[in-house]
């Protein structure tokens, strides 16, 4: 009650905050967000989740920096998928229909939903191997007629 009265009367002491240690700027640097793979799955998930969106937890895949977004712990049997070698990981990741499954040093899994490349392009992790493919859109005769009517 006394503190509230001092503030209300404008007589509360003012103690300046020291400049040392007064910022979080240092932990927001991209170079501090690299994923260290020799950890349990829960720690990997917390690291990725903790750096989601800024600055983004990253690793190196095929010589390119790839940033991971949208992780969750994956508690099921190992899904079918295409293997993806990740620098520093003891076991390759799996590109599945739901995303990229990575493994902690405890054998448990983390599911990553989105990946961002150095050029800024973001894709669903499930599309990693098809990211460079472009499919031509082929219309049926009915669809061609509809497109013409719309024009």
Q: What labels describe this entry?
A:
Methionyl-tRNA Fmet Formyltransferase, Chain A, domain 2, extended, single chain, alpha+beta, 151 residues
What does this structure look like?
This protein has 151 residues and is of the alpha+beta class. It has one domain (30-135): Roll (Methionyl-tRNA Fmet Formyltransferase, Chain A, domain 2). Helix content is 18%, strand content 26%. The chain is built from three helices and seven strands. It has helices spanning 2-8, 41-50, 141-150; strands spanning 57-61, 64-74, 82-84, 93-96, 99-103, 109-117, 122-124. Strands 1, 2, 3, 4, 5, 6 and 7 form a seven-stranded antiparallel beta sheet that branches. The longest helix is centred in the first third of the chain and has 10 residues, at 41-50. It is extended. The model has no long low-confidence stretch (mean pLDDT 87). One of its GO terms (molecular function) is catalytic activity. Residues 29-130 form the Formyl transferase C-terminal domain. This is AL1L2 dehydrogenase.
């Amino acid at each position: 009650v006394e503190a509230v009265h001092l503030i209300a009367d404008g007589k509360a002491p003012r103690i300046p905050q020291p400049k040392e240690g007064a910022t979080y700027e240092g932990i927001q640097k991209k170079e501090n967000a690299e994923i260290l793979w020799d950890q349990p799955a829960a720690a990997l998930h917390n690291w990725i989740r903790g750096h989601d969106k800024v600055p983004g937890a990253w690793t190196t895949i095929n010589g390119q920096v790839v940033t991971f977004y949208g992780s969750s712990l994956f508690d099921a049997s190992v899904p079918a998928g295409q293997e993806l070698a990740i620098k520093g990981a003891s076991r390759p990741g799996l590109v599945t229909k739901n995303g990229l499954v990575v493994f902690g040093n405890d054998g448990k899994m983390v599911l990553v939903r989105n990946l961002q490349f150095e050029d800024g392009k973001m894709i669903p992790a499930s599309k990693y191997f098809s990211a460079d493919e472009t499919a031509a859109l082929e219309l049926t005769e009915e669809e061609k007629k509809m497109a013409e009517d719309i024009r």
